[in-house]
Amino acid sequence: MNDACPEAPAPRRLTVVQTLPALVSGGVEKGTLEIARALVDAGHRSIVISHGGPMVEQLVREGSEHIAMPVHRKSLKSLFQIRPFRRLLRELQPDIVHARSRIPAWIAWLALRKMDPATRPRFVTTVHGMYSVSPYSAIMTRGEVVIAISESVLAYIRDNYPRCPESRIRLIYRGADTAEFPYGLQPPADWLAHWQQDFPELAGKTVIGLPGRLSRVKGHETLLQAVKALLPDHPDVHGLIIGGAEEAKADYEIELRQRVAELGLSAHISFTGQRSDMRHVLTRCDLTLSVRTTPEAFGRSTLEPLRLGRPVIGWDEGGVGEMLRQLFPFGAVTPHDQAALVQRLREWLATRPVPAPSEAFSLQKMCGDTLVIYARLSDGRR
Predict the structure, then answer these.
(1) Do the beta carbons of residue 29 and residue 176 sit within 8 Å?
(2) Could you give the dihedral angle defined by the CA atoms of residues 25, 358, 297 and 75, in that order, rounded to the nearest 10 degrees?
């Protein structure tokens, strides 16, 4: 008689399609690649449908597949992609379709509606931002599971889309990889040599960084005004604008550089342009700001420096406020109060507090929780 317990069946290999407008840069795009990598590492098939972009190379290198489709246009012409998208789904036979932006979500949802409910893929959406409230934005609450990336986004869904059942909403914070952003990271010597050669003006300065794509909502004017206010008493302060402008925002970069000159700050503000070495750049900042003009749904550019042990001062609202209150309460400032921000910066310059190490908001938890949703939805269909 064999008393051995039967082996548990191996987890079924899933096929998961994620769709978003493009893979150029940004938090949504980075999160897509992180989930894609987690799927591959777990032995699943990972496919991303987008218009493409520079991040495709990394996506494919890490084991996922990319299918280029024009799912990025905010135009009625995008409706012509519904049938091709449906044909593609019938060919790929995925278990899950995960939409991360409104136009791809509409295309995917309308494609799925004409498929057999008994066999079609399960539909997941992630609400990555507090979009303008409208029937157009409501598509992001049509998922069988609707992922909210912060408590602020969860409240936004509850307040504005009461027809989205509470039972369908899941809170999954975005995360930062502790291996990629380890506390106390020091860049290698060769990187430091190149950095010092490229930015000699930063030597001996107290560097206040503002990371993120060049966009009006990021709060660059707030940084400029803060540096100008601090310089009389702290002449060593230097602002560092980290990130580049997308092609559509090229005019804003020109305008921003002109604004620096108008304020007489040309010797006190530097621009890095688009960087692929963000974790090392962040270590060259003594402090970073998170001062977006509208509430941030989450704010990776807040979490990543905190992970490295670098202080962040920002508006106490949205996802940024949630992170600061938990990881670095000193950095939370009354939203959009320039005087309060400058005062907090003066206090920081006097005492130089830093955040403590923390395991909160981990990438591992974000990926694990998401893959559990995929598995449960897929098992439910079977």
Answers:
(1) no
(2) 30
Look up residue 150 and give its amino acid: S
Classify residue 340 as exposed, middle or buried by CB count within 10 Å of its CB (0-12, 13-18, 19+). Answer: middle
Assign 317 to helix, strand or coil: coil
Contact present, 112 and 104 (Cβ < 8 Å): no
Question: Boundaries of CATH 3.40.50.2000 in the chain?
Answer: 15-175+362-381, 189-351
**pLDDT tens track for 198-225:** 999 999 999 999 998 899 999 999 999 9
- pTM of this structure: 0.88
Instruction: Return d(Cα 278, Cα 22) in angstroms, integer.
Output: 20
- Helical (H) or strand (E) element with 158: helix 151-160
Hey, what CATH topology would domain 189-351 get? Rossmann fold (3.40.50)
Q: 15-175+362-381: what CATH class?
A: alpha beta
Are 381 and 95 in contact by the 8 Å Cβ rule? The answer is: yes
